[in-house]
Amino acid sequence: MFNISDPIVSRWLLVLICLGAAGLAGCDEGEPSADGNAVRLELAVQGMHCDGCAQALTNKLIKLPGVIGCEASFEKKQAVVLLEPKAATTRDELVTAIEALGYTVGAEAPVPPPGEQP
């Protein structure tokens, strides 16, 4: 069996999920997937200077309870986190973990009213 807390396994899991292999294609941020298996959060992260920073962030977040996948990107300045539907870890706890590594999390993008362009 696979150890989901292993960073390599979790990275491949995230890749498969992002490709839609687990039915998560089109999952909106913060919303459960169509099959109810995960909640996807995209967090804007400032302060990463290299791929090592992104890997350290991924390694930290993947260890939190309820996190089933995580991919931090230095180039995109973001972390994409997949949580179990009723995960014990909240967005605030993710932010706290990110800030503990010395990075900052940007404000969430405002959601425009229906029918208006962002």
What would your notes on this structure say?
It contains three helices and four strands. About 14% of the residues have low confidence. A hairpin with a 4-residue loop joins strand 2 and strand 3. It has 118 residues and is of the alpha+beta class. It is globular and about 35 Å long. It has a four-stranded antiparallel beta sheet with strand order 2-3-1-4. The protein has a single domain, classed as Alpha-Beta Plaits, CATH 3.30.70.
Name its key features:
4-stranded antiparallel beta sheet, Alpha-Beta Plaits, 3 helices, alpha+beta, single chain
Q: Compute the number of helices.
A: 3
- For the record, the CATH architecture stands as 2-Layer Sandwich
- Give the rounded overall mean pLDDT: 75
Q: Span between N and C termini?
A: 44 Å
Secondary structure topology:
Layout: H1 7-18, E1 39-46, H2 51-61, E2 67-73, E3 78-83, H3 91-100, E4 104-105
Antiparallel strand pairs: 1-3, 1-4, 2-3
Brief characterization of the structure:
With 118 residues, this protein is an alpha+beta fold. It contains 3 helices and 4 strands.
